[in-house]
Amino acid sequence: MTTKKTKQTSAEPAPTEVATTPEIIPTHKWTNSDGDVLIVRFVSQDGKSYGDFQHPMKIGESVTAPDWDNKRECGGGIHG
Predict the structure, then answer these.
(1) Does this model's pTM top 0.85?
(2) How is the chain split into domains, by residue range?
(3) What pLDDT shows up at residue 44?
(4) Is the CB of residue 49 less than 8 Å from the CB of residue 43?
(5) How far is CA 68 from CA 13, 15, 31, 76, 77, in A?
(6) What is the predicted pLDDT for the residue at 46?
């Protein structure tokens, strides 16, 4: 009986994991081509949220913010 000797090689090192940061999407790209934005919002069972704001209760209804402004700061509008 003959035996073959094989050269032992060291195991390949495991690939190193590289930490990645999530892509930050600029504010002006949050909307689709029609300018609509989907915001998921938790409200009470009667559809009310902070400040007694009444959200629509029927599927397909839209909500508008009576205090909307275009300032790029926290304030008027709807918060998700």
Answers:
(1) no
(2) 29-80
(3) 92
(4) yes
(5) 56, 50, 17, 5, 4
(6) 93
CA geometry: angle 34, 39, 44, nearest 5 deg: 145
Q: Tokens for 4, please give them.
A: 């073959």
Calculate the dihedral angle through the C-alpha atoms of 54, 56, 57, 61, rounding to the nearest 10 degrees: 180
8 A C-beta contact, residue 37 and residue 29: no
Q: Which residues of the chain have pLDDT under 50?
A: none
Q: What is the mean pLDDT of the chain?
A: 75
pLDDT in tens, 52-67: 888 888 988 888 887 8
SS3 sequence, the chain? CCCCCCCCCCCCCCCCCCCCCCCCCCHHHCCCCCCCCCCCCCCCCCCEEHHHEECCCCCCCCCCCCCCCCCCCCCCCCCC
